[in-house]
Write a structure and sequence with these properties.
The protein has a six-stranded antiparallel β-sheet, with no helix packed on it. With about 140 residues, the chain is mainly β. It is built from two helices and 15 strands. The protein is globular, with a radius of gyration of 14 Å. The protein has one domain (about 10-139): Jelly Rolls, CATH 2.60.120.10. About 5% of the residues lie in helices and about 45% in strands.
Length: about 140
């Protein structure tokens, strides 16, 4: 599958602004920055973002709507969850987590920022190659 043919949403440009928070190459196409912030994020096989936390004084968090490929989502201290097109992930404020592509698949999701007060992201450590290699065993 060619990345530009993954879904109805264009892949966008290399996600250089956030590259230091990813292992591997991701692409970002901001679909909306008005009422609700929505980004189409595309991950090459094996690409994943670092552990991170969405903070807010009120409201906030993130939703992921998977549009193409296969990927992973994991909360700190929990088992990983395999993601497929149609998967919906609700990420509450204050939950440490990561998400990204399966090792053998491109992956694409819409990342929706849940509106809130004083929202911010805290970027943490990368998901190690060793932990990533063991995902299938943990499911």
């Amino acid at each position: 599958m060619k990345p530009e043919e993954m879904s109805v949403f264009p892949v966008g440009e290399p996600n250089d602004a956030y590259a230091k928070y990813f292992v591997g190459q991701s692409y970002l196409n901001m679909l909306s920055t008005e009422q609700v912030v929505v980004g189409n994020v595309t991950f090459e096989p094996g690409c994943r973002n670092n552990w991170h936390i969405h903070h807010a004084d009120k409201g906030g968090g993130q939703m992921l709507l998977v549009t193409a490929g296969e990927g992973w989502y994991q909360e700190w201290g929990q088992k990983p969850v395999k993601l497929h097109p149609g998967s919906v992930v609700h990420i509450p404020t204050g939950v440490k987590h990561w998400h990204g592509a399966a090792a053998d698949s491109w992956f694409q999701h819409l990342a929706i920022e849940v509106p809130g007060e004083n929202c911010s992201n805290e970027w943490c450590e990368p998901v190690s190659d060793e932990a990533y290699a063991k995902l299938e065993e943990e499911v």
